Amino acid sequence: MAIDYLVGITIFLLTVFFVFQYTSGLFTPFASDSDEITLVADRVATTIIENEMSAQSITTPNLVDKNRVAAFTNLLNVDYNDTIHALGLSGGYYTYNLNITIENSTSVMYIAGEKLPYYGNIGHTKRVVLLEDKNAGTIEAAIVSVKVW
Fold first, then answer.
1. Secondary structure (H, E, C), 45-96
2. Which of 23, 52, 72, 80 is most exposed, with the fewest beta carbons within 10 Å of its own?
3. How far is it between the farthest Cα atoms of the chain?
């Protein structure tokens, strides 16, 4: 009886092992690379806010100049391919698409880049910035949303 019990337990354990191995392979095609895309979106958001739109204030790193914001969003809409290449989003192996939205508490102020796709992985980063209008002498809070796919 001991040998029958040992053979039965061995077959049972092999069956359980096979089922776990098989079912884990079923879900592999549904795995996403959204972590990688989110890291790319974070890097691009930092580059855009601190280099392209910055008001060059040492004491306030998230202070952006409204004129530079308008110039960058216009550049992204007019010369999209060269702009994403300058941001490091296009290369020989893979090219990412970019969409930027800047909004205040009441409305959307700027939209630039490609339209969002209906499906797929989209890396999304939001940054709160202070938008300075030097001509009017005002500063207002705004949210910069950077989406990469």
1. HHHHHHHHCECCCCCCCCEEEHHHHHHHHHHHHHCHHHHHHHCCCECCCCEC
2. 23
3. 93
Q: Distance between CA 107 and CA 116 in Å, rounded?
A: 19
Angstrom distance (rounded) from CA 33 to CA 113: 22
- Say if residues 38 and 122 touch (Cβ distance below 8 Å): no
> What's this model's pTM, rounded to 2 decimal places?
0.71
Return the domain boundaries, the chain.
1-31, 32-148
Q: pLDDT tens across 96-109, in order? A: 999 999 998 889 99
Instruction: Please work out, in degrees rounded to the nearest 5, the angle formed at the alpha carbon of residue 109 by the alpha carbons of 148 and 142.
Output: 80
Domain range 32-148, its CATH number among 3.40.462, 1.10.287, 3.30.1140, 3.90.1570: 3.30.1140
Give yes or no for a contact between 134 and 65, defined as CB atoms under 8 angstroms apart.
yes
Phi, psi angles (nearest 5°) of residue 116: -70, 140
